[in-house]
Specification:
Elements (H helix, E strand, L loop, with lengths): L2 H13 L3 H14 L4 H14 L2 H8 L7 H10 L4 H7 L12 H15 L21 H28 L1
Helix pairs in contact: 1-2, 2-3, 3-4, 4-5, 6-7
Length: about 160
């Protein structure tokens, strides 16, 4: 289906209030042309209409009309690292053409943060998980013995209960 036909269907979906279907159609168009800033802006507007600030920030990131609240919501949703945020923009390594001055500066800053050595998930705010050392062979054997004993114990209990029934 041609892009113009899909966009006409998107407009019709939005007139009927079918924002989810409109967003799906726009996502399919964006997946075919990742660098179409107009499509990204339209998808951001759909998410803005539904109150989904994080996705509005994600898809509006490369536009001039994204709000600071949307950018903050996007950053919180993809808080692990600048690399995660960059990946969420679904670009394939090239800098998009036709960015406005604000979007260009914002994108350049994100690329710089993602490529800096300090940009790691461990330095980002948010919940962290302790890294556990790998199991030693003796710990693995002990675990297997424990599980075997547990299974045999359950079988024994079931057998004893059946004797009395």
């Amino acid at each position: 289906m041609a892009k113009l036909e899909v966009l006409a269907k998107v407009d019709a979906d939005l007139e009927r209030g079918h924002t989810h279907l409109a967003a799906q159609r726009l996502n399919s168009l964006i997946s075919a042309d990742l660098y179409d800033l107009d499509l990204r802006a339209r998808l951001a507007a759909v998410h803005r209409r539904t109150g989904n600030a994080a996705e509005a920030g994600r898809w509006g990131y490369l536009t001039e009309d994204v709000t600071p609240a949307e950018l903050t919501a996007f950053a919180k949703a993809y808080y692990r690292s600048a690399s995660d945020q960059l990946r969420a923009l679904t670009l394939r390594g090239e800098t998009p053409r036709g960015l406005g001055p604000l979007a260009e500066a914002r994108f350049a800053d994100l690329v710089d943060r993602a490529s800096s050595p300090a940009a790691s998930p461990h330095s980002a705010p948010g919940p962290t998980r302790a890294v556990e050392p790998p199991l030693s062979p003796s710990d693995a054997v002990a675990g297997i013995i424990f599980l075997t004993m547990l299974v045999l114990s359950v079988i024994g209990v079931v057998t004893v209960v059946r004797w009395f029934l």
